[in-house]
């Protein structure tokens, strides 16, 4: 990747205001795709003309929660850099996802843009080492 190429990120959340806010904050730094559900996120990942490098998913979503979504996404695209974003406290399931490297990092809501940018940079650096 050249210095001028933007990192491509997919943000999955079932609340439209969160998707809108995320895109508004990060569209200058990253190429941002958003999905209102886990299934729509999987559909975006499968598009041949899009190469997503990082996925950020909300935990609590109807039909398929964030950990289930990331589990499916990583089974199909094992090199994805994945983050879980949630307002819930760290529980055993999330700790197990961290320990098994299913997710790179867990981030708390409300979103802290600086912390997320740092996490993405660290994750990308770790993935290239």
Report what the structure shows:
The chain has helices spanning 16-26, 38-45, 66-76, 92-99, 113-128, and strands spanning 8-12, 31-35, 54-58, 81-86, 105-108. With 129 residues, the protein is of the alpha/beta class. A 5-stranded parallel beta sheet has the order 2-1-3-4-5, with helices on both faces. The model has no long low-confidence stretch (mean pLDDT 90).
Short recap of the structure:
With 129 residues, the protein is of the alpha/beta class.
C-alpha Rg (nearest Å): 13 Å
Sequence of strands across the biggest β-sheet: 2-1-3-4-5
* Beta content: 15-25%
Structural class computed from helices and strand pairing: alpha/beta
How far apart are the first and last residues' alpha carbons, in Å? 15 Å
Record keyword descriptors for this entry.
single chain; five-stranded parallel sheet; 129 residues; alpha/beta; 5 helices; 42% helix
Write the layout of secondary structure elements.
Layout: E1 8-12, H1 16-26, E2 31-35, H2 38-45, E3 54-58, H3 66-76, E4 81-86, H4 92-99, E5 105-108, H5 113-128
Parallel strand pairs: 1-2, 1-3, 3-4, 4-5
Helix pairs in contact: 2-3
